[in-house]
Amino acid sequence: MPVPAQLQFFVDPSRCIGCQSCVQACSECDTHKGESMIHLEYVDRGASVQTVPVVCMHCEQPTCAEVCPADAIKRTGDGVVQSARKPRCIACGNCVVACPFGVPELYADRQLMMKCDMCYDRTSIGKKPMCATVCPSQALFFGTREELEELRPQSTPTNRFRFGEQIITTRVKVLAPKTKAPPPLLDVTAAMDDRPEVRHARLRVLGGAPAALPPADDPFAEVEV
Amino acid sequence: MAKIPVDELAITHAYGPHLSENVRGKTTEQPDKLVKTHCCFCGQQCGIQLKVKQNEVIGFEPWEEFPFNRGMLCPKGVKRYLQGSHPDRLLTALARDPSSPSGFRPMAYEAAIERAAREIARLQEAHGPGAVAVLGGASLTTEKTYLLGKFARVCLKTPFIDYNGRLCMVSAGVGNKKAFGIDRVTSPWADMLETEVIWIAGSNVAECSPITTNYVWQARERGARVIVQDPRITPIARTCDLYLPVKPGRDAALFAGVLSLMIEQGRIDREFIDAHTVGFDAVAEYCKQWTPAHTAEVTGVPERSLRAAAELWGQARSSFMLHARGIEHHSIGVQNVLGSINLVLASGRIGKPHSGYGTIVGQANGQGGREHGQKCDQLPGMRDISNPEHRKHIASVWGVEEASIPGPGVDAYELFRKIDAGEIKALVAFCFNPKISLPDSGFVARALDKLEFFAAVDFFLNDTARHADLILPGSLQEEDEGTVTQVEGRVIKINKAIDCPGEAREDWRVVQDLARALGRPHGFTFSGPREIFEELRRASAGGISDYSGITYEKLEAQMGVFWPCPAHDPASGAPTPDNPGTPRLFLPDSYNPIAKGAGRFYFPDGKARFVVADYRAPADDVDAEFPLMLTTGRVVSQFLSGTQTRRIGPLVKQYPEPRLELHPRLADKLGVKDGDWTTCETRRGTITVRAMVVTTIRPDTVFIPYHWAGEKSVNRVTVAAQDPMSKIPQYKVCACRVARAAAPPAYSTKLEPQQ
Prior knowledge:
The complex is a heterodimer. The longest helix of chain A has 7 residues. Chain A has a single domain, classed as Alpha-Beta Plaits, CATH 3.30.70. Chain A is globular. Chain A has seven helices and nine strands. Chain A is 16% helix and 20% strand. By secondary structure, chain A is of the alpha/beta class. In chain B, the strands form seven sheets. Chain B has a seven-stranded mixed β-sheet with strand order 5-4-18-17-16-6-7, sandwiched between helices. Chain B has a six-stranded mixed β-sheet with strand order 24-26-25-28-23-27. The longest helix of chain B has 19 residues. Chains A and B meet through helix 1 and helix 5 of A and strand 3, helix 2, helix 7, helix 12 and helix 22 of B.
């Protein structure tokens, strides 16, 4: 059974608490052979506790499949890009190098590329992927667009990304803060060129006429050492 | 004789902690059955389904129907199944044997029970009933904790029983009883979703109670503002609306300063205060000294942040105040709790829609484990062991003379002081690892050495049990059934998935076997947890935590029942078999057996109490010699003293060893770089771990998590100061100094990370 089209995968990195529930649960999925297919990294632990979970984005035109010399990577009709097929995979690692999101991994002991397949064993029988089921902060969310709009009124899903010359459309969507005119795509390489602004704790301005708020960049500025 | 029998390294090699595999066998294996139960770890008690095949737990499946977590789990919940079928699992009783290379030799279970009974009888005959003490744990089911309390008082006739909840939520318990007359969270977490402001004081929600994160952030999606009060920018603080970077141990001052501003600005609910509380004037008078400038100076929170907090909290129409060990683990823990309660009462937002207050309990049965009799001053139903009427009721349920029930004992730490002083000669400990979890643990180890007889009951050989003369193999959570009461006050059912392996026994059987061997089996002949629960229902009837209307069937059908759930209407006395329980406390029309209709709070006049929350500087405060503050806490992948989680491979890989967090400005001054071996020294001793240089902690504070043993245990250096009322230790602050270590610690070449 294909994964139903109305069930979508949304990632909201701003909710991620870095607990690694997704990583631990992923290795329990039948098709993952005891390995975790999720990448979870601190952006810069020295500066912030912000972490980012990376699942396969399931591209409409998967770069991993396009660069595969053995035609081992298939995208099923429901838009899920599967792990490399064992009989065909030559473990060359082209896909690992080419994927703009850094998702596929080569397992040298198995001579095989494996990657997030959206828990195909689960999603193809009507269940949610393991990671999105257990995620305690629901940074990983699996459900319908309507459910998402109800639960996340302050976010806009986007699934078009620019990496230099390459524009990619994906099945998985990333949640960005809602703005009046949402950008047509997320320019990932441009964002990487920006020097990240060090923000330790985001402090929203309150309604009314609040007293001066602490500076947003360093809440410990006044602490003497 | 309770000295460690052989070199600790030899014990470690024999009994671990060793690591489990990453996953069990093939994940494609089909289970024989799925058992709906709960996670064995923290107070959230997430619903989970265990996959069982041939008396082995082989995996898990999320339980999406359980209302609290709807399938969500933290990494501990995901991998908790790996604690079973573990190479370190104790399958027989063990006896101390210095001639054995591992320090212990297996012993037949029955012989071990007989020997334990002989030793207990011998020491009680020679020194009186109080020569024997019992320690329990808040990871045990409520049935087991009830039975342990009864065992100590009826079978052993000793006043000396206490439990490791003493290290967890007792400050909240005392504060709640003083202010409300009842010790429970006011509301289900679902009420948080529509609230306007959530104030999180001293709770690293994302790591210590991860499932609560989604409630907080879902509330924020709907417009709630979040205030976080913490010396560290924890994951929940990262995106909060207002971060209050409080110095460890200064919470009561912070609350007083904010309340002072609210009073000055008229942002309090006068009508509610007049109608439903007493004691406000004294609190208002006390708060006058806490001007913004003075509060800022003491707490380290800038004046403008205090004003922003008063504004946010003062203007809200609905709110949740949540706190945890960060404000409770102090020698003024109760004062800190009362300070937060004063802010809630002054706002009038309690017993109202979308508003709530409560402590986020840390241990699995933190709530239920403190209600029914293993606490040194309580009898079942949250009854007072010094109250003659309370004693009479329990004596009638137990079928004993009231006078035969001992009076109050002492807290867990005091119990070790009594062992040290030679007053207590024997100890029977269940599910408690004080050598890692009590502060200034070198003292605890020395006291253990003085015991004439020590029997430990556990499923792994924990670090304290290494001192034991006898170890009786107890049960893992999945090997028994029973109830626990989770963070919201919801009583839930733990279901048995597998039988105990080898000669291991359910803990309640061990207790009953000891009673029988002591020749006093009367009252300890239950056929199982269900029968114990039936007696517990009668014992709790009429008490504050009244479970009399709860049955196992109701728990399963409703997926939990919030106490109080009396079997009879407290007003009319009519039977109420269909009573669904009490999700929300203090509602306007609510009736309780203390106020009897006079009001909504659990006092004869029905009114809540404002209590002056008096700030005092912490014990062992900083000085020129020890200029920094050391604070301790958890990481998400480990739990308590690590007896279970340091044996689960993938959890150990996630955060293998303790690290010392310090701010780059402090690190620069000390010449410490990220990853350096760094020594933290307090007035008790030193600990050397690797540094982790992060901007997410106050530059005058360092943090070390506490889950590890031996030289990696931060509780070797924490201070044994305690709150005078709750007796909770001051884990969250002591004075220290930090320096780059001259050489790696000896353990770095001898031990695996988890050992």
